[in-house]
Write a structure and sequence with these properties.
Blueprint: H1 13-16, H2 28-35, H3 45-55, H4 68-73, H5 79-93, H6 97-117, H7 124-129, E1 135-140, E2 143-148, E3 157-161, E4 169-181, H8 183-186, E5 192-193, E6 212-213, E7 218-230, H9 236-246, H10 253-282, H11 287-301, H12 306-323, E8 326-328, H13 333-336, E9 342-345, H14 347-351, E10 357-362, E11 367-370, E12 381-383, E13 396-397, H15 404-415, E14 420-424, E15 430-434, H16 437-448, E16 459-464, E17 472-478, E18 484-490, H17 492-497, E19 499-504, E20 507-510, H18 513-528, E21 532-541, E22 558-567, H19 574-583, E23 587-591, H20 596-606, E24 616-617, H21 618-623, H22 626-632, E25 638-640, H23 644-656, E26 661-665, H24 671-676, E27 679-683, H25 689-694, E28 697-699, H26 705-744, H27 753-777
Parallel strand pairs: 9-23, 9-26, 19-22, 23-25, 24-25, 26-27, 27-28
Antiparallel strand pairs: 1-2, 1-3, 3-7, 4-5, 4-6, 4-7, 8-28, 10-11, 10-22, 11-12, 12-13, 14-15, 16-17, 17-18, 18-21, 19-20, 21-22
Helix pairs in contact: 5-6, 5-11, 6-12, 10-11, 10-26, 11-26, 11-27, 12-26, 12-27, 15-16, 19-26, 26-27
Amino acid sequence: MNAAERPGTDGCAEECVRPVPSWHALSVHEVLERLQTDQTSGLSEDAARQRVEHSGLNVLREPAAEPMWRRLVRQFQELVIQILLFAALLAALMGEYLNSVAILGIVVLNGLLGFLQEESAQRALLALQKLSLPMARVYRDGRLQSLPAAVLVPGDLLELEAGEHIPADCRLVQTHGLLLQESALTGEATTVEKNASAILLPAVALAERQTMVYLGTTVVSGRGQGVVVTTGMQTELGRIANLLQTAVVELTPLQKQLAALGRILSLACLGPVLLMFCVHMLRGADLLQTVMLSVSLAVAAVPEGLPAVVTLTLALGVHRMVRRHVLIRRLPGAETLGAVTVICSDKTGTLTRNEMTVRVLITGDAEFTVTGSGYVPQGDILKRGAGQETDEGLGQRVQPEHEPDLKLLLQTGVTCNNAVLSATGDFGETWQVIGDPTEGALLIAAMKAGLYSHPGPGRRLLEIPFDSDRKIMSVVQQDTAGEVMMYTKGAPEIVLGLSSTETRNGQLYPLTEQRRAEILGHNERLAEKACRVLGMAVRSLPVEAHDPPLRTVQEAELVFLGLVGMIDPAREEAAGSIHACHRAGIRVLMITGDQPRTALAVARELGIADEAASVITGSRLDSLSEEQLRKAIRDCTVYARVSAEHKLRLVRALKANGEVVAMTGDGVNDAPALQAADIGIAMGLKGTDVSREAADMVLMDDNFASIVNAVEEGRGIFENIRRSVHFLLSGNSSELLLMLFAACFGWPPPLAALQILWINLITDDWGSVFCCMDFCWHR
């Protein structure tokens, strides 16, 4: 079919780019027909050109930056400042230029200090653009071309391979062992298998859409083809960008209290000023002098040093927080921490390490615990029930050389594996997994046993990749001695069903029905603890199997080796931090895109939920009204399978209940809720650019415990500001009473406006500043 004959060139561009809410539920044929795309040759250049005119470029809209002058003006919008500005203007109109300049000097100095301390304007959408891959491999006119991702349009046919970033939202057409890492978008720690031929309901959650790949996610392994269905702001990432753009920035608790203080002061000031003005005018005093006396009284009533003291206190608090691995991006956020009543935390990467870790190994006649967590090859293999217990009470340390079943189990995990470990850091003290995190966890476990090397010994002859139908993966390898073995891993029930024997203490035994039931019981026990469980098996093949008949080798008559249980482990410090939050009267909620059973298991381990607690899922949230949600959120502490919109809705419900909300997170899907919360807290090391730019505060060590330290500092800042207000008001009230009594008794004004400013500057303002600094530095 030539380009002129292919669909998509007959002026249907507008119809083809119209958004469809449930692309994942349509069949491949329906998608191609709706987008009028040829499955083998893609769009023609003419069709693509027409569609880009209707759909626009595949880019995220950049928000209009707030002008510098507007950020400066914002520093002078507090009522206390406006009272002083009015007094300065009135003094200037009356010819008292020295008084006017003195008042303006203090106001401008405070405004500049706040302006210089603030971070630059919001750049969250600019960070979102960094997730877009600049180039994509696309079929145009039947030829595979490398084109800028910005020119992609709905209907473009893309080639996808391991290591590539997805440049637009696509409906998959073909998949071959395609695995994606979507944690930044959905919050799920493990890789997600994709299947172009899966049949899905329209209402299926984002994290379960096997037929779709999304902008900003990454291909871990396998390959596939996908047809672009949405671009730019119509993508899932674009929807998050819209949520960020429409989020309303609210005042912090401190700003609200200072505004309330300004209103109280204005009312308290107005009465005495009017009283004195009336008394003097009734006595026939000069109008100019009476007005200046009124200005003096107003100046005496207003603690003009308060904004500067507040800014300095916040700045000193921010400096201290940096030393405790907390970076405050917006100055008022430092105090907001002290008022927090609820912390909404993402699970993956925040409460957990986002590093799959093998915890349990089960062979034919033994069970082993693997210590250590994350991608750090430090830990031991402990055999349970071996008699001598360790200090941890988990079992006796063993050497794999003395446990043949354990050794073969770990070797199978290494051989049937496509991931690679790479040492990072200046001294190679940290490790990075390149590939599937699950396979990386198997390599780390083998390293702890001293059994991993890359490249491993032997020669790979064949790989039968994992797919959703078989749920297993096999590798045929010939070792240095010439022996040919098949190594298989996958879903335990599938691997067990393909096995006829098992190994116990190096000997082969037939798999009876009783043993199969016992093994499946172990599998269920580990699954209830939110472990991801893999079964391992091997089979010896004849040496001549590496000839052409190799591809006819069947995954059958396997020797079952055992089970491997792994989990994304909770951070060691998280449980203690959550307990400290509870002691401080702060509720902790877990809000995640992961599976409900996994979320609840981690929540119980950390003390967020008790044994009787239940989970509210995203689908349940959709069925709740706002009033029902506000009631449910008072009791439930765990929310699973939630989207970015759900997180935003939960934050708003908490705020509607009168809570001061802190939201933590590290993924793209957390950004709208981070921005909507009273204080958004992002992870600095593993967080995405989007989450960091949307947050008010960044944890530079990704340590949940640092939040507790920050809350402590925030409460100290609030207490310090409260003391400063008391100090300032006590001094200014005495000046106010002095001026009022003098006016009432007909005495001459004891102080001029300039003298009052000087007294306040030397005694009140600098005194409170020094007291503030002394208190801050000695905390």
